[in-house]
TrEMBL record:
It comes from Henriciella barbarensis. Residues 215-363 form the Peptidase M20 dimerisation domain. Keywords: Hydrolase, Metal-binding, Protease, Zinc. This is M20/M25/M40 family metallo-hydrolase. GO terms for molecular function: metal ion binding; peptidase activity.
Length: 468
C-alpha cells in the first residue's frame, strides 16, 4: 500500500484488557510480533529472516517441502527473497486463487518515532510498529489462515497459492518475477491482495464502508529537458533553456486531461458522495449520475482528494537547471510525475504532453519503470465472500465499494498480465489511522483480532465444499 500517511493527533481508544484470546488468536499475534520485529526495509537485507521464520511455522503446521518455494532476488544490489506456498486441492474443481502480501517495509528510524519502530508494542488500544498496517498484518493474516486451515484438515476445492514478495516498497523485482511465474505456473482464476482494501471506521469506531481495490493508476515519471549552447550571462541570447522549460511547464500546469471514468470509479465516487452533504458530496453524486456535469467536474478537479479519481494527472515535482550564476543555462530539466487513468496508456499520455508543450526542443524521457494495469471487473463470488466475512464479524449494514488507488501495490503487476486482482484486506481503520510509511504506524488491536477470520472465511467461501 503506497498510502502517504498524514500526521494526525493520536486518539486514545479504550484498552481491552484481560480479554481471553483463543489459541489461534494468540498464535496469530505471535506470528505478527515475529514479522513486525524484523527490520525488513531496504538496506538491511532482512527479508530472508522473515521467510525462514514463516517457512518454519508453515512446515510445523504440515506444509511439505514441495509446497514451499523460496526464491532469491537481487533488487538493485540488495538481496531479498520471495516465498510461494501451495495449499493443494486433492481434487481441483476450479482454477487456483493466488493470494498476495509483501514482507518488506519502508524503513523507520527509531529517533523519529515515539516508540521503538521494530518492536510490537500494544498500547492505548493499538499495536504500534513499522509494518503493523502495511503490510505485516497482511502477511500474518495469510500465513495464520493457511496454518489454521491446514491444522483443521481443510481440503480446498481448488489450489490456493500464497505469494509473498520481498521488495514491494522499492524495486518490485520479486513482484515482477513472481507475477510472471504465477501466470505460467499457476494461471489463477483471480488474485486476492491482502495489501489493499479494508474496512473504514468512523471516529467512534463504527463501520462506514468496506473498500475493495479493483484498479490502480499507472505511475509514470518523465524528465523534460531543454538544452542550449549557453554563453556568458552578460551577453544573453534570445533563447534560454530555463525560459523554454518554464514555458513548457506553465502549459502543462494549465492543461486539464480529459475526464475519464469507469464503472468502478463511478461507484466509488457515488458512495463517497452519499456520506457528505457539503459541496464536494453534491459534486460527487452529480458526477456519478452524469460524468459530463461541468460544475461537478470543476469541484472534483479543484480538490486534491478527488482530482485523481476523474482522470490522468501530471504534475511537476522537481527541477534542476544551470551551472553558474553568471552563465547562461546549458540545460534545464524538470521532473513530471503522472498518474495515468486505467486504459489511457503511457504512450498516449506522453503524446498528449508533447502536444500540450508544442515545442520540439523539449526532450521527453520516461524515467520510471512502469506497469500499466487495467481495472478488474467485479466478481460476484468475491463480493459475496467478502460480504460473508464481514457479516461474521458483525458488520452487516455497510456498502462494499470498489475503488481505484493511485498506484503502487503488487496487484498492478498481476492486472498487467490480465489477472483480475482485488485488494480485500481484513483490517479496519479510522481515516488517517494507518500511518503507513509514516511515523508511529499502528493498527487497532480490536481490528487485528476481528480481522483474523477474514481470509479464513473468504477462502472457505471461495474454495470450500458446497454446503448442504
Ligand atoms: Zn503495502
Amino acid at each position: 500500500m503506497s498510502l502517504l500517511a498524514a500526521a494526525a493527533a493520536v486518539s486514545i481508544a479504550p484498552i481491552a484488557s484481560g480479554q481471553e484470546r483463543t489459541e489461534f488468536e494468540q498464535q496469530a499475534r505471535e506470528i505478527y510480533r515475529n514479522v513486525v520485529e524484523v527490520r525488513s526495509a531496504r538496506g538491511h537485507e532482512n527479508v530472508p529472516k522473515i521467510v525462514d521464520y514463516v517457512v518454519g511455522e508453515l512446515k510445523a503446521a504440515g506444509f511439505s517441502d514441495e509446497d514451499i518455494e523460496v526464491t532469491d532476488y537481487d533488487n538493485d544490489g540488495e538481496a531479498t527473497q520471495g516465498l510461494v506456498v501451495w495449499y493443494r486441492s486433492p481434487d481441483p474443481q476450479d482454477k487456483p486463487i493466488a493470494l498476495l502480501a509483501h514482507m518488506d517495509v519502508v524503513d523507520a528510524l527509531a529517533e523519529d518515532w515515539v516508540r521503538e519502530p521494530y518492536k510490537l508494542i500494544e498500547e492505548e488500544g493499538y499495536f504500534f510498529g513499522r509494518g503493523t498496517a502495511d503490510n505485516k498484518y497482511g502477511v500474518t493474516s495469510l500465513v495464520a489462515t493457511f496454518i489454521r486451515l491446514k491444522e483443521e484438515g481443510f481440503e480446498p476445492t481448488r489450489d490456493l497459492v500464497m505469494v509473498l514478495s520481498g521488495d514491494e516498497e522499492t524495486g518490485m523485482v520479486s513482484t515482477r518475477a513472481q507475477a510472471n511465474w504465477v501466470a505460467e505456473e499457476v494461471d489463477p482464476a483471480f488474485v486476492l491482495n491482502a495489501d489493499a482494501g479494508g474496512l473504514g471506521l468512523d471516529d467512534n469506531g463504527e463501520p462506514l464502508d468496506y473498500g475493495i481495490q479493483g484498479a490502480e493508476k499507472t505511475y509514470a515519471t518523465f524528465e523534460l529537458t531543454v538544452t542550449n549552447p549557453g554563453g556568458h550571462s552578460s551577453a544573453p541570447r534570445a533563447d534560454n533553456a530555463i525560459y523554454e522549460l518554464a514555458d513548457a511547464l506553465k502549459k502543462i500546469e494549465a492543461y486539464k486531461f480529459p475526464v475519464r471514468y469507469n464503472d468502478l470509479t463511478l461507484a466509488s465516487i457515488e458512495a463517497a458522495g452519499r456520506k457528505r452533504l457539503d459541496r464536494l458530496g453534491n459534486a460527487q453524486r452529480a458526477f456519478a449520475a452524469d460524468p459530463t456535469d461541468e460544475d461537478a467536474i470543476e469541484v472534483l478537479r479543484a480538490n486534491p482528494a478527488t482530482v485523481g479519481q476523474i482522470g490522468t494527472t501530471c504534475i511537476a515535482t522537481m527541477l534542476r537547471a544551470g551551472h553558474a550564476e553568471n552563465a547562461l543555462p546549458q540545460s534545464a530539466t524538470a521532473t513530471v510525475n503522472c498518474r495515468i487513468f486505467p486504459g489511457v496508456g503511457i504512450e498516449a499520455t506522453e503524446a498528449t504532453l508533447k502536444d500540450v508543450v508544442g515545442n520540439e526542443d523539449v526532450q521527453f524521457e520516461l524515467i520510471s519503470d512502469l506497469v500499466e494495469s487495467p481495472e478488474s471487473g467485479m466478481r460476484e463470488d468475491v463480493l459475496a465472500a467478502v460480504e460473508t466475512a464481514l457479516e461474521a464479524r458483525g458488520v452487516t449494514d455497510v456498502d462494499i465499494i470498489p475503488h481505484m488507488s493511485a498506484g503502487g501495490t503488487d496487484g498492478m503487476h498481476y492486472r498487467n498480465l490480465g489477472y483480475d486482482t482485488y485488494g480485500v484486506g481484513g483490517a479496519a481503520a479510522k481515516q488517517n489511522d494507518t500511518f503507513a510509511h509514516g511515523l508511529n504506524e499502528r493498527l487497532l488491536v480490536s481490528s487485528f483480532y476481528d480481522g483474523l477470520d477474514h481470509f479464513y472465511i473468504i477462502l472457505k467461501e471461495l474454495a470450500g465444499p458446497e454446503e448442504g
